[in-house]
Specification:
Elements lengths: L8 H8 L12 H21 L3 H32 L6 E3 L2 H9 L5 E7 L4 H16 L4 E6 H4 L10 E6 L2 E7 L11 H9 L12 H18 L12
Parallel strand pairs: 1-3, 2-3
Antiparallel strand pairs: 2-4, 4-5
Helix pairs in contact: 5-7
Length: 237
């Protein structure tokens, strides 16, 4: 059986006398692609050869300038984004007179404002957690203010209170931290709750305090199955 692209001796003789058409030459995909590239390059060379020296120089300058301008714009956007995401980094103490400028009129910036009082453990915990979050989430503005300086006669029972502002509007609030771990709240717990308002994106994929609560319950259940008591762990006997 003859293979395409090959022929028998008899077929070669017949083609020599014109009794058979010329045999087909099989072209691979790689060869076909190479032929297209060669044809395109040849066409480009023909176009370039017809241009004068001035036209070639002008074309070269235009291409270089376009490339540089595109690169400059990309770098400018990268620098703007980097500056936007590294604008703050600390928790700023503000006064009542600062509130409008620093919080209400902060424009497109997200602002997390903690109303607190000294001497309240929950408020102290929130301040510590916010310090860590401010350092991590530098594109978000974190501020704190003594509650009664912000709102006269604001009741301590509502502390700590956290207000989340964006474009002059309150987008969320947290009153008390009992639902997010209480005095066992971690920076991750607070980050998760704040992220739900849209103030920033978080890499935490589930509520940390629920995860720890589940772990504690599972541990207690395991000890109960073994007939152990929590107090046994603290005893030497």
């Amino acid at each position: 059986m003859a293979i395409r692209g090959q022929s028998t001796e008899w077929e070669d003789v017949q083609r020599k006398f014109g009794n058979l058409p010329e045999k087909e030459v099989e072209i691979t995909a790689e060869q076909f692609e190479a032929m297209l590239v060669e044809a395109a390059e040849k066409k480009q060379d023909e176009v370039m050869q017809k241009k004068t020296l001035d036209e070639l120089e002008e074309l070269e300058d235009e291409e270089d300038e376009a490339f540089l301008e595109k690169y400059r714009q990309q770098r400018i956007e990268q620098m703007k984004e980097a500056a936007k995401n590294d604008r703050y980094g600390t928790v700023e103490e503000i006064s009542r007179t600062d509130f409008k400028q620093e919080v209400s009129d902060a424009g497109d910036m997200w602002v997390v404002c903690h109303l607190y009082q000294d001497g309240i453990p929950e408020c102290q915990l929130v301040n510590r957690c916010m310090m860590q979050l401010a350092d991590k989430l530098r594109g978000t503005k974190f501020v704190k203010i003594i509650s009664t300086r912000c709102i006269p006669n604001y009741p301590d029972k509502n502390l700590p209170t956290i207000l989340i502002y964006h474009k002059g509007d309150v987008r969320g609030q947290i009153i008390g931290i009992g639902q997010i771990g209480g005095l066992k709240m971690t920076p991750d717990d607070l980050e998760w709750e704040l992220s739900k308002t849209g103030a920033f994106k978080t890499d935490i994929d589930e509520p940390p305090h629920k995860k720890s609560t589940f772990s504690m319950k599972r541990g207690a259940a395991a000890r109960a199955q073994r007939g152990e008591d929590d107090s046994d762990e603290d005893s030497d006997f």
